[in-house]
Sequence to fold (275 residues):
Amino acid sequence: MKKVLFASTALVLTAGVAAADVTISGSANMGLYYSDAAGDTVVKNEIDFDVKGSGETDGGIAFGASVDLDADSNNSAHTTGGGASDPEVFISYEGLTLTVGDIGEAQDTGGIADVGFDGLGVDDIVDDYGENGSDDVRIDYSFGDYSVAVSLDSSNDDIALAFSGSIDGFSFSAGFRDNTVGDNDMKATIGYSAGAFSVNATYVDNGVLNDTAYGIDASYTSGDVTVTAAYAERDSGADAYGIGVAYDLGGATLAGGFGEVNGDQRADLGISFKF
Fold:
């Protein structure tokens, strides 16, 4: 499979560029965050800009590259992110996309919602259990309402597969990872949405740690207000729960949440923006 992935990089771009542009999109937030374990309330903000260049050859092959520019602050402790991060380069043709760079693992698909303006970490109990770091070669193919993905960590030959899609009000995703060290990992999510109500459930089998985790979230929207509740647990004993409220301001969202993660009571309130 590794040979197949790298052989895909032999795609030849036809000469001549039909169209090209560079876009900048991003998000930012600011607010208050409280942790009982830390015994403190902090003023925090986070900024994330995504710089993306894209184009298309005369033969219809799309191509592009992107990097993230991140920074955050907790009171007077500022983190600039060390410059550009998450570099990715891709080529795509008729639903087939090859990406090389700091990319997500294919099996890390789906998951449950977090609560709060910046997230309290309720979802990390289950969603992070399906991650092993990042891969560097990935192929995605989309057809209709379905998509498949294959990714590879070329440093150790770990390979991952995923399949996701939607049928009427239902959505699903399933991922599998063949680890060279430890047993295999599996992650599955199923969701349902009907009008103002939606629910998602996720299950993770972490073969490396020989442990399992599961989580569920439910949301209800009335007008511009959405209420979300989430719960997650690991068989090894870690658990988390939380409830949050978000108000859509049109271009911005005012949100807050409270809950408990591994015995640590947490709460936040703030506003987030998208550009």
